[in-house]
Amino acid sequence: MKSIADECGKRVSIYLFGQELQPETYAIARSDMMIKGEGKQAERIAYGSTISNDAFPRETFDFMISNPPFGTPWKKDLEAWGYKDKKEITDSRFVFSFNGDAEYSIIPNIGDPQMLFLANNISKMKTGTPLGSRIVEVHNGSSLFTGSAGQGESNLRRYIIERDWLEAIVALPENMFYNTGIGTYLWIVTNKKSKERKGKVQLIDATSMKSTIRKNLGEKNGEITPEITAQILLLHEDFEQADPQYSRVFNNNEFGYWEVPILRPLKYNYITAEERLARLSEEGKLASTKGITIEMIQTVLRTINQTALYKNTTSFRELVIKALQKLDAWKSLKTTQRNGVANAVMSALSEKDATADPVLDRDGNPIPDKTLSDKEIVPFTHSGGIKAYFETEIKPYVPDAWVDEDGIKVGYEISFAKYFYKPAELRSINDMIADIEQIEHDTDGLLAGIIREVRG
After folding, report:
1. Which of 128, 266, 380, 387 has its CA 20 to 30 A from that of 338?
2. How far is it, in rounded angstroms, from Cα 330 to Cα 339?
């Protein structure tokens, strides 16, 4: 950085800070600085976990670079805090106020800490300078899409994108690291976007841009040369004018969606036929009711038409209550006991029935059937939003369904495959015919030979 500044005739002061958990890497980093005569810089390289032991809680930085571990459980950090459950975490880097939620959590699954490192760097961005801060982090693909709406990973993506801080993500080639062959991605985050980038995110597909090395180094079989680096940088600089084969630019809302709970009403039919009356013996609540036996209940219920199938819960419950009032001990029961007996009877005499009337609560609203509930993913970009989606995609097929407005959640995910999908190239018909003809030629006379052997 200082060399570039010197080339441009700029005088700058560079102050390096760093933190590392692995002892060997920490030792190499410090010794390298000391060998270069940067002893004071070396003192600002801290040892310990970035997650549970932030070495620079009051510092903000102009530039931040991080290569967090992929898929490594961070349970030890949880224990270092003295917690048993991640819900207990109150660290302001990971739990804060956002969009009306006083305890907005961006804490990911305990099995992968990548997003915690990104959140840590975001908490250290400068806000009072013209250039703000820039972050570049290397992540694997899980950071793009893991975590459903309302969960920590999705919440962090939402926080970054809705604050308009995500500038670009670059998909790198596979097999670029010594210890893993999986694809990796560069996240470029800044709180001071240039004017033309505001409200937009650039995705760059550099998966095909690598130079093969002579000898594999572990999983690593390629490298990004200075020439390839310049090519990727040019795609970034060209922004909306870049080659669409490798670069696409989207509005921020392209990656957002609503997770919409779709509910359907609970529906039962009822009948006092002997087969269902026999079920009363399975209701434990009835066996413990003082002064009333199951046989007594069965007797009074037989006064209800035993061949009629009732499909309205409210009206049938009235018949059940009227029958139960014939019991001598009914008047001595408390209201809660009466409701308990009535509920147990209704349960025993019921069966699910899609043609029945919906079961209603005290306010006259339909009670949802949990077994029929579903969730729909509605993109922010869907014309007309949730209402239009429901009217065209749900209601025509399940007319009694409704949207659980209170249960709607917002999520964000990014899919490179969606925008840079490359279908497998199919073989030509001529090639396939040639293969079939070759097989036919190779097996010519094979069947006749087998028959001759069998016959001896």
Report:
1. 266
2. 11
